UniProtKB/TrEMBL annotation:
The lineage of its organism: Eukaryota, Metazoa, Chordata, Craniata, Vertebrata. SUPFAM superfamilies: Cytochrome P450 (SSF48264). This is Cytochrome P450 family 4 subfamily B member 1. Belongs to the cytochrome P450 family. It comes from the Eukaryota. The keyword DNA repair does not apply. GO terms for cellular component: endoplasmic reticulum membrane. It holds the Pfam family p450.
Amino acid sequence: MVMEIVINLLWSWLPASPSQFFYWTVVLIFICVALKAIQLFQTRQKLIKGFRSFPGPPSHWLYGHVHMVREFLTLLVRSAWTEKYPHCYPRWYGNFLAFLCINHPEYAKTMYSRGGKKCVSYVPLIGLITLNGPKWQQHRKLLTPGFHYNILKPYVTLVAESVKEMLDIWGKLVPKNGTASVEMSQHISLMTLNIIMKCAFSYQKNAETDRKTSYIQTVFDLNSLIDHRIKTPFYQSDLIYWLSSKGRQFYKACKIAHHHTEKVIRERKDSLKNEKELEKILKKRHLDFLDILLCAKDENGNPLSDEDIRAEVDTFMSAGQDTTASGISWLFYCMAQNPEHQQRCREEIMELLGQQEEIQWDDLGKMTYSTMCIKESLRLYPPVPLIARELNSPVTFADGRTLPKGFLTALDIYGLHRNPEVWDKPEEFNPLRFSTENSKHRHPYAFLPFATGSRNCIGQQFAMNEMKVALALTLLHFELLPDPANLPIPMLQIVIQPMNGIYLKLKDLR
């Protein structure tokens, strides 16, 4: 604010003479740079003072910790930092942006049982993810009915249809009485997009696969670009970022994603207009997410704007597609790596379904051991490994240390789930951690794959149901085997992704 006032005053004083104009323009630029340098220095000093009670790994004078966390070393570095700083530690992205990374349940409880704005680093994202204050509360209230169990029930059949379509493709890739190595993540990503399109938007098979593939790649690109911007100190400046090739690439990817979303909304509006009454449509199909968005009204009877609807659709399609795809992909990887648990899940599912050809809503709650395996895979590979917040008031932790208002915190879900102070043998796959008895003794903030507090994932039940159906049908048709020649390398980006894909060997059991 002060800088803007000074610039406006100086600009109003500039003389009309070309030579003097050039001279004073140089002076103005110099003053702007000097003021910016002072502002950055003050920001740096404020951060140092605020984090002085929180020891952490040494940081580079320019890059902070960014240079220490290369993509292929991220897991090793994060695990080492969690072990050395088991409660929290400052993590620097350059010299002027830092978060207090929280990886202990008690710290998570103190931080996330209270309110807090979404972090400014989420600005490139959209919809319910980034809204704050009354507008977020309004949208959350309007969207919550879309995740009631009565709405979710009909989705089981639609999810099963999409899973079977994927399994049919796999069946053509696997020779009889043999195995074939298949890259999981791309197939599963297409499947989860199909599920979102069918369940949330009643979109049927007339969507071309090429267009879907293009949209999935765009979602991957956006996640990668956001992660890259956060980790690049110079890109924290909006001006520099938008002038860079990465900034232009991000803008282009946003246009593609928005075009895809606008097409979905436009087709539904046309459908509603042609049918004239929603009741006529609902007699033919289930109530979906887009129906709720288009019909939602606040307490004053005002509907959501077109911009708000697009933002929520973008959020749901992105968050509901790539996060679930990540969860299912790593779940299958864990199953392949642990054949004894895979077989126990398969036996549970076979006993549960018996001669029943289709999986039903009531079956999902009876998949006890399979659910434990799903939760254990989410512990080891949480789809969203880090969630950031900005403090809207000072916070004091249980050990007496405080953090001022306006500071940024990051719930390091990956570190929390592998913290040796919280979990015994944290690197080991052990579904019994989530048995009824063991769960009673676990800290309520020790396992947070869907975040926590008032801003937890609104679609977590939908995601869990999707993972259960995918696991059940897949294990009935295929045995999942590891492919030692193609081991995946996890990348901890906005959504945890395999750097080189997830290759598993499939054996057809039909």
